[in-house]
Amino acid sequence: QVHLVESGGGLVQTGGSLRLSCAASGRTFDKYAVAWFRQAPGREREFVAAVTWSGRGANYANSVKDRFIILRFNDDNTAFLEMNNLKPDDTAVYLCALRRGVGAVNYPSAYEFWGQGTPVTVSS
After folding, report:
1. String of DSSP letters for 30-53
2. Is 58 helix (H, G, I), strand (E, B) or coil?
């Protein structure tokens, strides 16, 4: 079993930045792909970004490409989502997820382990 805890969310103005963290425990981190999803009230869970287990391959939603960066540090069992130039449409609860395997895929059903999420609010 893997336990994930996200942190770093908060309230930020349009154009601001935040860095979300995902800390994993329970098993070694390095054989899992890591992803960030987000869910706004009344909306389906939406893919944001994913990175392969090696960290060499990343996949981003078009809506965040060139603004967000996903990072991972296997030695520390942590992953990060650096969010820049935030917009009100980025407001959501952000969730970290892990899946066995190498692919940085973008659909929620591929991911086995999920955190509880950290809320991000971007004010206009």
Report:
1. TTEEEEEEEE-TTS--EEEEEE-T
2. strand
Q: What is the pLDDT of residues 74-111, one digit of tens each?
A: 888 999 999 999 999 999 999 999 998 878 899 999 99
Q: What whole-number distance in Å separates Cα of residue 33 and Cα of residue 102? A: 6
Phi–psi pair at 107, nearest 5 degrees = -115, 135
**Cβ proximity of 94 and 83 under 8 Å:** no
- Condensed to tens digits (0 to 9), the pLDDT of residues 1-41 reads 889 999 999 999 999 999 999 999 887 777 899 999 999 99
Whether residue 71 is predicted with pLDDT greater than 80 in this model: the reply is yes
Other residues' Cβ atoms within 10 Å of the Cβ of residue 70: 23
**Residues whose CB is less than 8 angstroms from the CB of residue 67 and which lie 6 or more positions away in sequence, other chains included:** 83, 84, 85, 86
Cβ burial of 110 (10 Å; 0-12, 13-18, 19+) is middle
3 vs 113: CA distance, rounded Å? 7
Query: Identity (one letter) of the amino acid at 100?
Result: R
